[in-house]
Every structure is written in C-alpha cells, then in structure tokens.
Amino acid sequence: MKTESTNRSEFGSVPEGVKAAVGVLTRSSPVLALLFLWQALGFVGALPVYVPAPTTIVNHLFVMFAEGTLIKNAWATLQLVYVGFFGGAALGIVLGVLTGRITLFGRLFDPLVSMTYPIPKIALFPIFVIWFGIGFMSKAIVVFLAAFYPVYIHTFDGVRGVPELHVWSAQNFDASRFQILTEVVIPDSLPQILSGLRVGLALAFIVVFSAELIQSDLGLGQLALQARQFNNYELMFSSISVIALFGVFHDRLLLLIRRRLLYYQEGDER
C-alpha cells in the first residue's frame, strides 16, 4: 500500500517546467486576450486607419529587420539606456549608502535631492542640448538623471531602515566598518535597492524615448517622430512595440536577478 501511494504521488506530481509554463501563461493571459481582441477587430475591419492590426505591425517589423533599420535604431536606443541607467544607478547606490550611513553627509546632500527631484528630467533636455549639442551626451545625461533619483532614494531609505540591532550584533563580533557595510548594511538594504533599480530602469526607457522624440538622428523615438510626420502608422506602432518589448524584457531580467539574490524571501514578485 505504501509503495502504491508513493508511485501515485510520483506520477501525479506536476513537473516544475509545466508549473512554470502555466504560470507564464496565466500572467500573460490579459495581454494575449487584448491582442486577440485587437486582431479580431482588425480582421473584421473595425479598426480605424491609424490603428494597424498586430499582424500588420509584426510584418512591418520583419521588413524593418530585413532592411537593417530596426537593428540600427534599436541599438542606438539601447546604448543610451545602458550608459545612462548603469551610470545613474551606480552613483545612486554609492551616494545612497553614504548619505544613509553618514548623518552629516546626508544632511548636506538630501536637501539638494529634495529640491531637484521634482523637476521633470525631460524638461532639462533642451538645456543639455544647448550645452552638449544634439548628440549622444545630452540624451545620456537625461537618462542618467532619470535613473539616479529613484535608485538613490530607495537606497537611502533602505540603508536608514537597517535595524541598529543588526549593526550592534556585528560590532559585538568585532566586525570592521567595511564588514558591517558589506555583510550587514547592504544585504539588509538589498530589497529596497533592487526596487529602486526597477523604477529607475523603467524611467530610463520612458525618458530615452521622449528625448529621441524631441531631437535625435537615430533611435526608436526618432522613428516614431518620422512616422508621425509622414502618417506612417505601421512604423509608429512598430517603434512603440519594440520599446515596450525592451522594457518588459529588461524588467523580467531584473526580477529574475532579484529572485536569485533574495531567494530567502517568500512571496517575491513574479
């Protein structure tokens, strides 16, 4: 009887791969339903002329890929995101840790952040164009600032929220300041830091697309601007779709890293 029940449980168990696939399908069902409805409306001719069907957008993406337009402009956008995001995130983490741990440094720097944070970063883009021209630098700085502030604020809050009991316990074991920082403060602050990185990454994609819409020679935003000027709705929706897919992919990648680093937490974001 015991062997029979064991075999039943083994054969009745669902493989992890199947569970993961079902989970992905469940989370994707609203998007799939929306795409299905969108395509159905296009099939019956109920869509306005300025809203192409999903299959039309996909076909146009293949054409852009074959012509080399897609890769060239997508890579130009990704370069700006990577340079601006990683630079802003690195500075945000360093300053967030410093201001969170050193009270005097926090009192000096925090008012400056509080004063400049509410300013829309894209509003500074024309100023940077005057200073640095319309090339790579002006857009990279805007993305840098968009990523810096949320990462800094989340890191600062995370460091300030570290229980003093944890620090005292490490001090009782004769831990050095560096050990307290790397083995107590940063690990305890990691959930907040990763949340800030996620917000900063999303803002980086938003701001880079907006900056390219204003002034750019290359990029997905520039393609959308070109599409608006010539009423090329397939090109417009194609560029928007690519930036959306980039955002989703990088967000999922960041969540995967979060799950690996915070494996000990239950109920983590999916």
Automatic annotation (TrEMBL):
Pfam families: BPD_transp_1 (PF00528)
SUPFAM superfamilies: MetI-like
PROSITE patterns attached to this UniProt entry: ABC_TM1 (PS50928)
Membrane topology label: Multi-pass membrane protein
Keywords of this entry: Cell membrane, Membrane, Transmembrane, Transmembrane helix, Transport
Domain ABC transmembrane type-1: 74-258
Positions of transmembrane segments: 82-102, 122-152, 196-215, 235-255
GO-annotated biological processes: transmembrane transport
Gene Ontology CC annotations of this record: plasma membrane
Subcellular location(s) per record: Cell membrane
Family in the record: Belongs to the binding-protein-dependent transport system permease family.
Record-given protein name: ABC transporter membrane subunit
Organism field: Haloferax elongans ATCC BAA-1513
